[in-house]
């Protein structure tokens, strides 16, 4: 069949076709759709789940692999940091059934805290890394990735970037699953990593890397015969191809599909007759550094242009126009300069991301903001939809570092300056991912902070995945529901307040204010389903009582409320979700409810 | 080669429209590639899709190269004009959602497009979708009107087939009625 598949979907199809038995991951843009697609497939020897975090996912995949199952753990680049502990050990311990660690990097970045490069993780862990340029190539590379993993008994990193993960391509394939027999776990001393064994295994690992180089090199390719060599990989390969259109004779391209380990012979052969090398890659200068090292070690002196000498930007993603500009700078050839079509382009201000209309987090933040008026408080935030608590006009988030850090940073802030009260915000999915340990620490060490758990009963930011608090498993079937309050109580925390952010606003503000009077460790759970999960029953409209005071607009920042060119306030009836928060800030009874028929 | 840009804001169905357009070209036997900025799609941010007919290209349309710019929202279309040239076809939904903290006006944007482009089409997809009782289907309304006007070379039957391939059966039934009505009435 022929289908238009997104890069992540292509990976999922290929994993299933190639007999993956266990697929686990934690959602994170741009990696999420791999598991989201795999959950549409079923077979008696196939299991898929959303795990509570990336470390858990990778360890499950590792366990399955030791039994001979083909397995995959999926995550985004910052998720790999969470899973780094098992990954580094696993590179030494090794695997049995093919194990792919799928990691989505995010040059730009579009939706991440960092622009880190997973190819560097491959160098760090001494593991092979596939780096496909397109959805089609990703589809084709899953099979060899499993085979390499099984042949060399090592996990294989499969790294893609946003523009490969989230681009779509028509792909022709036969949807037929390869059935494999799982041989089962065999007891061996190899599976228990002790220092002495680790030393021996490290030597083996270095040898394996040497052994696999030539084989992996077959996935890299050379195009063209020009004297100017371009070394590239990932999506940048296509930017290069388009940028040199019409000038193909000048260049030859070395497309690196397996970025680590690199085969010296192949690189030297390519560089042999080149006048110069230009390195076109996103994120870190991984190819540039590896290739330069090979050239140096072999006494080859050649001009190189890349990130290290300022020709290619370190930050942000590339595109055809940026690549052309690099060629213009290196070659001083004006034919690579783009012409501007428009001179007087309208300047359109950036649209700031906002809480959705009807988002319960907007109300939760405003309740806390109002309850702490006139108090000097630090608000620590975390990763998820509610990171938007920093945006105007909510402005109730002062820090955001990584998953789970709101709770632990709050403790540090409180230790450093005990005169300051600190309130931490964390979402439900993030609480399960890495908030619980921070709470345990806070209880154990008597760090008296207040923790607000914003429970919208889903993983909102990545597209509504279930988690332990929902009790639903990946297919929607019943799992076991984990109660946030029971965890909090079980740890020993006695002060817990439960708030419905949609119930009476003033009453909620009073409750929270009173709760904050006691300076012991306390947890407030704000619970209300994500606005995107419920079909709306009503919406609100502005009536003739409106004095144009703009309080509703100014306080809430709700995207459904705006003013027209005459300064009249209106509520967009297609956007409003009927939460009624704005009504609390109108002194003129100008906001009225309309029931949806 | 055909390069198409679809610009809009979260919630307008930009990505779905891009999928359907890809399917339309694929059904004609072309290879397609597309890319989209997703993630902020639920949260009122800008959403852009690039569609490229042809296989040996990257996912992002280079500056000035787009043949068609479809603006589901006018100021988002204006934001992406660096991707088109004076000969490009511009299709604007008559829908303006002011970026907060700006004093942009709808007329200002319309004027900019009128002054710079000879192949400009303004389509009332927002109002028509509302009239036809499917306010959340501005995207498919746009598509049907664009094809009906001959701006994209696809027949009603081809649209319905692509919708059937891309949508769930329930969604397909609703959108089928929408497309039929658009071809009858507008």
List segments of chain B where confidence is low: pLDDT < 50 over at least 5 consecutive residues.
none
Largest sheet features of chain B: 6 strands, mixed
Total strand segments of chain A: 23
Envelope shape of chain A: globular
Total number of strands of chain B:
6
Q: Helix count of chain A?
A: 19
Largest sheet, strands/sense/barrel of chain A = 7 strands, mixed
The strand order across the widest sheet of chain B is: 2-3-1-4-5-6
Assign a percent range to the helix content of chain A: 25-40%
The outline of chain B comes out as globular
Report low-confidence residues of chain A grouped into runs of 5 or more: none
Q: What class do helices, strands and sheet pairing of chain A give?
A: alpha/beta
Integer-rounded radius of gyration of chain A: 27 Å
Average pLDDT of chain B: 91
Notes on the protein architecture:
The complex is a heterodimer of chains A (597) and B (186). By secondary structure, chain A is an alpha/beta fold. Chain A is 35% helix and 18% strand. In chain A, a hairpin with a 5-residue loop joins strand 21 and strand 22 (569-571). In chain A, helix 14 crosses helix 18. The longest helix of chain A is centred in the middle third of the chain and has 23 residues, at 195-217. The two termini of chain A are 43 Å apart. Chain B is an alpha/beta fold. Chain B has helices at residues 14-27, 74-79, 106-116, 125-131, 138-148, 156-166, 169-185, and strands at residues 2-9, 32-36, 46-53, 66-71, 84-93, 120-123. Chain B has a 6-stranded mixed beta sheet, sandwiched between helices. In chain B, strand 4 (66-71), helix 2 (74-79) and strand 5 (84-93) form a beta-alpha-beta unit. In chain B, helix 4 crosses helix 5 (138-148), helix 5 crosses helix 7 (169-185) and helix 6 packs antiparallel against helix 7 (169-185). Chain B is globular and about 40 Å long. Strand 8 of chain A pairs antiparallel with strand 2 (32-36) of chain B.
